[in-house]
TrEMBL record:
Source domain of life: Eukaryota
Gene3D superfamilies: FAD/NAD(P)-binding domain
Organism: Parathielavia hyrcaniae
One Pfam entry name: NAD_binding_8
SUPFAM superfamilies reported for this sequence: Nucleotide-binding domain
Protein name: FAD/NAD(P)-binding domain-containing protein
């Protein structure tokens, strides 16, 4: 017998695991427990704080939602108006010393004339070719050519996407695109070029929310705090060392064993199958590709420069900097950096030169967060990456050589982006059902490996929908029909809905099926 027995065990307290736990707590049916190796909730949506008091998220996270249930849960966790800031996305692409409004392919009116001609040529050729095409694009590169043409492909789409994904666009499939990449309107682009006009905001995150305090990680700590303490097990006492799918038992680092009826796994699925010790599944998971992400933070003394202004996040396709994206993190909240009266010494100037004085001085302060990808197809000089990124900030005129650096941050996340590789669907269509046949629902950004439903709202709902599938047999729309959930307001589930408990199932048995009350 295991030391602890529950109907449903959740591995991981990131957005997906917390979504599952919130739903189980809401329906008040099967017994459950959530475990995580980290002391605090958040997973890949957590926030770090430097010794100097600068906050940095694990990559670029903002809150925009396709689901009312997600909204309900985070509003319950952070209910006050002053818990949040709402921002209009101000986003640009850096190209040839210019700030081109995002999305680049809709704003070639901002480019030098010779590049405008190259892009228009390609767009017209692509439009004509696509009218007679009888097959779907075979990969992401072909999708780019058919949609944007050779000019936009060479100037922006190919170099930028290589910097993001750390694999060439020819090695990626294109079913994931959906709302992620804007398809240009040739007539509108041409009209804007002639009239020298800028296209408006595009995409689901044109307006977004950000927590006033504690960064994105603060959201998930607050969500976790709404759950019963006795049903959470975080830190070393929640670290999984072995998953025995046959015995339906998980062993933790401290030796504790947990028996379960159903398992919702949100750790990376390649790590899961290793802990299961199944050579068949390990071999199958080798077909999944991912890139690592380096998050670099730079804290700077001084007023935010006018050239930076209210920019949110910025894209960098060129090779004059290692990062593909920069976020002006201090613009999201005044609490993302130390207050102006905090005294900090200058570490060095941006050009590497030492300051004349090592005395601590007051601010104000502002900050930039950078992201750099890495893979076997895109190596990175990790030892010099921070220095190279600061030089990249100078090269792109984000900062000046004489700027005072008061704080730096560098953290590598081995699993950063789940790559939509050509092989991905073939692997997932075999791997996920095999796991489910063993009563393991593997879900989440890396649990189910689908980037197109890897945002915070998607990830949370993958956990919610896994619970409803286990308990009621409901279809998991987010996992199986990404384009459908991304094209609508999903209002069917609400936190105010109530359930009655039809009696508790025995541990390791079939969970109860609570019915919603009218």
């Amino acid at each position: 017998m295991a030391d602890i027995n529950v109907d449903i065990l959740i591995i991981g307290a990131g957005p997906t695991g917390l979504g599952a736990a919130k739903r189980l707590n809401h329906i008040n049916g099967p017994s459950w427990l959530i475990i995580d190796a980290n002391e605090k909730a958040g997973g890949l949506a957590s926030t770090d704080v430097t010794p100097e008091g600068f906050l940095y998220d694990v990559g670029g996270h903002v809150i925009f939602s396709h689901y009312k249930y997600f909204d309900d849960c985070i509003d319950e966790a952070l209910p006050k108006e002053d818990d949040w800031y709402t921002h209009q996305r101000i986003s640009y692409v850096r190209y040839k010393g210019l700030w081109v409004p995002y999305p680049f392919q809709n704003n070639i009116s901002m480019l030098p004339k010779e590049d405008q001609v190259k892009c228009i040529d390609g767009l017209i050729d692509a439009a004509m070719a696509s009218r007679v095409a009888t097959t779907k694009p075979k990969d992401f590169d072909e999708w780019i050519l058919r949609t944007c043409g050779e000019g936009v492909a060479d100037i922006f789409m190919r170099p930028y996407n290589y910097k993001v994904w750390a694999v060439p666009t020819t090695k990626m499939q294109c079913q994931w695109l959906g709302e992620r990449v804007a398809a240009p309107d040739v007539k509108l682009v041409t009209k804007n070029v002639i009239l020298n006009k800028v296209a408006g905001n595009w995409g689901p995150n044109a307006t977004f929310r950000f927590p006033a305090r504690d960064g994105t990680g603060g959201i998930w700590i607050a969500v976790s705090d709404t759950l019963p303490k006795e049903q959470k097990r975080y830190g070393q006492k929640g670290e999984v060392t072995k998953v025995d799918a046959q015995k339906k038992m998980v062993t933790l680092k401290d030796g504790t064993t947990i028996g379960y009826g159903k398992l919702i796994n949100t750790m990376a699925v390649d790590h899961l199958v290793e802990k299961m010790g199944s050579q068949e599944l390990v071999k199958l998971s080798k077909g999944l590709f991912y890139s690592s992400t380096h998050v670099i933070g730079v804290g700077i003394r001084g007023e935010r420069p006018e050239r930076i202004g209210d920019k949110c996040w910025l894209y960098f396709p060129e090779d004059n900097c290692p990062f593909y994206r920069a976020t002006i993190f201090s613009n999201y909240s005044p609490y993302n950096q130390p207050q102006a009266d905090a005294k900090l010494p200058t570490l060095y100037h941006a050009d590497g030169s030492k300051p004349k004085s090592s005395d601590a001085k007051e601010g104000p302060y502002w900050s930039i967060m950078l992201e750099v990808s890495q893979s076997s197809m895109k190596p990175v000089d990790e030892a010099n990456l921070l220095k190279d990124c600061i030089q990249g900030l100078i090269n792109t005129e984000m900062i000046k050589a004489e700027d005072e650096i008061v704080s730096t941050y560098h953290r590598k996340f081995d699993h950063g982006y789940p790559t939509p590789s050509l092989e991905r669907e073939g692997v997932l269509k075999e791997l996920l059902p095999k796991l489910q046949d063993m009563d393991i629902w593997s879900r989440g950004r890396f649990g189910s490996w689908r980037y197109e439903v890897g945002n915070q709202d998607h990830s949370f709902m993958l956990g919610v929908e896994a619970v409803d599938n286990i308990v009621c047999g409901a279809v998991e729309l987010t996992l199986n029909y990404p384009d459908f959930v991304n094209s609508r307001q999903n209002t069917e589930r609400r936190l105010v809905q109530s359930f009655y408990n039809a009696g508790s199932a025995s541990a390791n048995g079939v969970p109860v099926r609570p019915a919603p009350q009218a």
